[in-house]
Every structure is written in C-alpha cells, then in structure tokens.
C-alpha cells in the first residue's frame, strides 16, 4: 500500500484498468518525489491500454493529447493524466520525435524517459519497478540519463535544461558521462523552443540550489543558448556569488535583468516570451531597484512601486547587500503611507475644476500629481479642505 493521499485517490483508476485486463502504474515525477519524501503535487498514471480503450473504461474523460496517448480521467472532482505506454523514435530536429508508437510494454515506456530517477514506476500495492536503478541514483543523489547520454540529449536537447533544474530542485550532482555529453552537445539547445526553456528556467529559479544549477549552466556552456545570456558569463559568475538561493523565481528574473543591464529590460524579458503582465511587473521591479540605489526608499518611490514590487526589489537589494531596510521594514513603510493609490486621494479633477473655475486641461493632471506627492510626503493631510487650501497657497489653480 502507498501511504499517500494523492496516490490513494488515484487507486480506483489503476484498479479499474487492471480489472479490464490492462497494466497500470504510477510513473515519473510523482514516484521520484514520493521516494524522496518530497511533496507530491500530481500523479501520472501509465497504462498498456490505448487511449480509445481508456475512454471506453471511464465515463468522464477529456482528450489531452491523444496523439501522445494522454487522456484525462475525471474522478471525484479531480483529473488524473493517464498515458499509454509509448516509445518515441527518429528525433531528426533534436526536439521532437518524428513518430510516437503505443506499446504494451512498461519497460519500453520507462526506457524513453530522460533520467533514471524519472524512469521508475510503482504498482498499486507500492512495488517499485526500477529497471535502470533510479532508486540507487536517488540515494547517491545523481542525475544520470537512461542509456547513452549523447543519444538522449541528441534526441531532445531540452533534457539538458531539465537536468539543470533538477539540480536546483533536488540538489543532486551530474553523473560524469551525463555532464561530458552536455559539454559536447550544449549547442543543440539552440533548436529548442523558448517556451520550453522558460518553463525549465522558471523551475530552476524557483528551486533551492540555484547557485549550483547556474554554475552547471556556466560550466557546460548551456547558458550561451539562452536568450540574452550569451555575453553574460562574467555577470552570471557575479550573480552566483550572491546569496541567491532564497530568492523567488520572479526575484531571480529581477536580479538577472538588473545585473545584465540590457538596453531595454522589457525587450530582454520579451525574448523569453513571458506574458506582458509578468514582463511589466519584473521591469517595474528593476526600475524601482535602480531608483532605490540612487534615492533610497522614500514615500513616492514606495507608492509608485506598489507593495509587491517594492518587496521584491527590497529582497533583491538585500541579496546585493545594498539595503538599510529589510523586506518587512519596506512593507511596513508602504503600509504606513498616507494613501496607497490615486483613488484614495481626497480630491478629484472635478473638485479642481470647481475650485479653479477654468476649463479642463493638462493642468489638472499636473495639479493632482502635486497634491498626491504633497499628501504622500505629509506636507498636507489627505482631506479635501486641507488640499484645497494647499493648492491655492501654491498657486496651482
Ligand atoms: P515535475 O515535478 O516538475 O512535474 P516531472 O519529472 O514530473 O517533474 P514532467 O515534465 O511532469 O516532469 O514529466 C513527467 C515525466 O515524463 C518525467 O518524470 C519523465 O519521466 C518524463 N519526461 C518529461 N519530459 C521528458 C523529456 N523531455 N524527455 C524524456 N522524458 C521526459
Ligand atoms: Mg510532473
């Protein structure tokens, strides 16, 4: 028996497939993380049943990628990915198999997986199926390809990035042959779509051993094939000398964009095809950090940055050892700002027009901004009557 709620919930699926005469097991990351006693977030199920057979057995299914053999089985309000055992062949573009073939053998399915620690399966009663000695590598904390590293990385070059992110997530070491192959084949990473690279870098940046993983990217030359990283070897070395392991993924992007000093931060992040929302947020953080260095944390800067961006910038500043304020102190100072947004200002454009008895114009925006600053810096209280007196005294109307 597997004593874990996620596996328990999925047991009925395995049992039903087996009852129908098929083989069904847990595979991949969930098995690895379960053995490592790390949190398991989702379980993947592999089966000898073909997708159409899986769909016959379960009433509620969603086609996730029939050509890859994946069907989502809905059970008890949750979805479980059930994937048919398959082999892949002919990777003529270093990233995708030319053909995927469904097979009835679990061994063949495990053999096509990237690393030994990811190529284990577990049966319903908790028995481990481990033809490539993944458990031993888990114990030794080693990342080793299944079979020839040169072949496996030539098939799909993204696997080299996956190795780097597992180093960051698990704090493992690279097996020697695996590492040598990476040094030789790093260039193949240029064939990989940037979205897939971003996915792995994000996981690397979210892991706890970023230093070690980034050092590996430098040592193997893989960094060269990451957008905007090409000429940054020295800066990357500077980055890993900072205590970066405690940063979040977006804080890591903030630090990277800050240290690389690209002409345009948004353009650098855009090369990674991040969402516009994310790009904006990170770029705002870089801007806040630069201003903080020149001006220190003052009310207007805190206000314009907003709480989350200010906290991220403060955290990165603390890693750069450049701050007189901790993240908590910066948050506290933000919370004690007299206003947090323009909406909270006790005066509007309509008030100004009424007071000035003049038509609308660019003067309104300017006057509101001045009033906003005055309130923030506590030159005037955030009360309509006080603000009116203040704008009149300053001849702003
Ligand atoms: P995570 O915890 O991030 O989900 P994971 O190991 O489950 O880690 P997934 O991307 O979810 O990673 O992939 C599930 C499994 O599929 C892996 O454990 C591995 O066995 C296999 N796999 C994924 N990507 C590849 C690849 N590029 N080449 C070979 N096998 C792969
Ligand atoms: Mg997974």
């Amino acid at each position: 028996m597997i004593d874990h709620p996620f596996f328990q919930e999925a047991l009925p699926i395995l049992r039903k497939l087996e009852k129908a005469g098929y083989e069904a097991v847990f595979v991949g990351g969930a098995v690895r993380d379960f053995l490592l006693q790390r949190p398991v977030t989702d379980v993947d199920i592999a089966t000898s049943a073909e997708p159409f057979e899986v769909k016959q057995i379960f009433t509620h299914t969603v086609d996730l990628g029939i050509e890859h053999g994946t069907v989502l089985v809905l059970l008890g309000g949750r979805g479980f990915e059930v994937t048919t055992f398959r082999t892949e062949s002919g990777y003529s573009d270093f990233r995708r198999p030319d053909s995927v073939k469904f097979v009835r053998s679990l061994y063949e399915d495990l053999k096509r997986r990237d690393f030994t620690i990811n190529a284990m399966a577990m049966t319903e009663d908790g028995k481990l199926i481990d033809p490539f000695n993944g458990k031993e590598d888990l114990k030794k904390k080693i990342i080793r390809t299944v079979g020839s590293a040169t072949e496996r990385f030539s098939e799909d070059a993204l696997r080299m990035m996956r190795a780097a992110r597992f180093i960051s997530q698990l704090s493992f070491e690279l097996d020697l042959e695996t590492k040598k192959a990476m040094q030789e084949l790093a260039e193949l990473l240029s064939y990989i779509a940037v979205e897939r690279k971003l996915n792995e870098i994000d996981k690397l940046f979210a892991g706890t051993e970023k230093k070690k993983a980034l050092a590996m990217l430098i040592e193997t030359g893989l960094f060269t094939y990451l957008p905007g990283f090409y000429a940054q070897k020295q800066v990357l070395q500077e980055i890993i000398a900072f205590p970066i392991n405690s940063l979040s993924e977006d804080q890591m992007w903030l630090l990277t964009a800050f240290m690389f000093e690209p002409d345009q931060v948004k353009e650098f992040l855009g090369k990674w095809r991040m969402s516009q929302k994310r790009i904006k947020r990170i770029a705002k953080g870089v801007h806040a950090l630069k201003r903080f260095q020149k001006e220190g944390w003052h009310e207007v800067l805190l206000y314009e940055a907003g709480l989350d961006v200010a906290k991220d910038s403060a955290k990165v500043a603390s890693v750069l050892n450049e701050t007189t304020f901790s993240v908590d102190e910066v948050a506290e100072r933000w919370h004690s700002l007299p206003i947090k947004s323009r909406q909270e200002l006790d005066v509007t454009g309509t008030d100004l027009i009424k007071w000035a008895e003049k038509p609308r114009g660019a003067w309104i925006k300017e006057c509101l901004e001045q009033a906003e600053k005055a309130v923030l810096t506590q030159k005037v209280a955030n009360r309509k009557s006080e603000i009116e007196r203040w704008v009149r005294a300053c001849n702003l109307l």
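The longest strand covers residues 78-84. The CA atoms of residues 30 and 139 lie 16 Å apart.
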